[in-house]
Amino acid sequence: MVGVAGTFFGLVAGAILIFQRGGFDARGTWSKRAGRFALGVIGIMILWVGLRMLFPHDASLISHVLRYLRCTLTGFWVAYGAPWVFIKLGLQNTAKVFDQPAPR
User: In whole angstroms, what is the distance from residue 33 CA to residue 54 CA?
Assistant: First the structure.
């Protein structure tokens, strides 16, 4: 339940931020889609697998807190971090999404 809660929080927080900035358009050429897929998977592997190897696996409170953090970061990467990287690298058709100020 800790992992699910963390992932959900990260996804929701990232989705709120990306939609405040205009959203993300997943359309594009197959080469851009393949590039986004590869970068997205690399980011997930670094966060999910890399942090899993570093963090403890026991039933202690610190282990659960770190699991929540790892899952939150992974969810946030999926919803906001990866789209931000894709836009900055020009892997999205409309690269002006993050040039607009966030609405207040």
Answer: 31
How many secondary structure helices (H) and strands (E) does the chain include?
A: 5, 0
Q: pLDDT tens digit string along 45-94?
A: 999 888 888 887 788 888 889 889 899 999 999 999 999 999 888 888 65
Place of tokens 């058709």: 93
85 touches 42 (CB < 8 A): no
Residue whose pair of structure tokens reads 């592997």 in the numeric block: 45
In Å, how far from its chain's centre is CA 100? 20
Residue 28 and residue 41: Cα distance in Å, rounded?
A: 18
84 vs 8, 17, 56, 70, 91, CA distance in Å?
19, 10, 30, 19, 10
Cα separation, 18 vs 12, in Å, equals 10
